[in-house]
Amino acid sequence: MTSEPGRPRAMRYVLFDVDGTLIDAVDNQRLVWHTWAERYGLDPVEVHRVALRTRPLETFAQVAPDRDPRECLAALHELEDEDVRSGIYTAFDGASELLNALRPDAWALVTSNYEHRVRGRFARTGLPVPEVVVDAAAVTEGKPSPVPYLQAAERLGAQPEDCLVIEDAASGVRSGLRAGMTVWGVNTPEAADGVHRHFGSLREAVREILAFASGGQAGPGKASTPLSRTPL
């Protein structure tokens, strides 16, 4: 199919998850939850295991049902903010090259964290911050709802079909798919259900992401695997 004469080609956009996709925060998250658990006299290993698959309020309900969830959340936020100030953070290989090569108005961050923490982590790792950041405070429904990615597209002035989502987590993958976007997975040994392509690392996906953003056809990619979409 060819474009109509004189009709400009649609602009492409890239929407990135943050933790696990651009920033390696696994050790930081483990330390925060271990410290939180010890404060409440709980088993740190068990608390972290639960926290990996639930949202904070759901975690508290399971591991500390007799505690005030607002108090628990305040303590967690305190620890997370301190970690942003003093923790050691690393950007995944390829993140800086990739983000600096994209047009500032052609990409966004979509995170379940809060913008001030994202900005703190990006400042620590030297990564640029885009014009659009959709964080936990910006939406009433988090991932796997499509709301976060749809809001990012709206703020960029983009149509969902012109957006590429880069994710590492299953909930984020479902969010992007439900938003009607192309979704690629990175930084995991196995592909999440439904991703259109999977790369073992962000570095392996850099060339393909830039090709998508430029409007070109992304090549097969040495370490990528085309996957069929899983029905939603």
Explained architecture:
With 232 residues, the chain is α/β, with parallel strands linked by helices. The protein has nine helices and nine strands. The strands form two sheets. Strands 5-4-1-6-7-8-9 form a seven-stranded mixed beta sheet, with helices on both faces. Strands 2-3 form a two-stranded antiparallel sheet. Strand 6, helix 8 (170-178) and strand 7 form a beta-alpha-beta unit. Helix 1 (26-39) packs across helix 2 and helix 1 packs across helix 4. The protein is globular, with a radius of gyration of 18 Å.
Strand order of the largest sheet: 5-4-1-6-7-8-9
Order of helices and strands: EEHHHHEHEHEHEHEEHE
Structural class: alpha/beta
Largest sheet: 7 strands, mixed
Helix content, binned percent:
40-55%
The share of residues in extended strands comes to 5-15%
Distance between the termini: 28 Å
Output the radius of gyration.
18 Å
Which blocks of ≥5 consecutive residues have pLDDT under 50? 218-232
Mean pLDDT: 89
Number of strands: 9
How many helices?
9
Outline type: globular
Summarize the entry for a quick read.
With 232 residues, this protein is of the alpha/beta class.
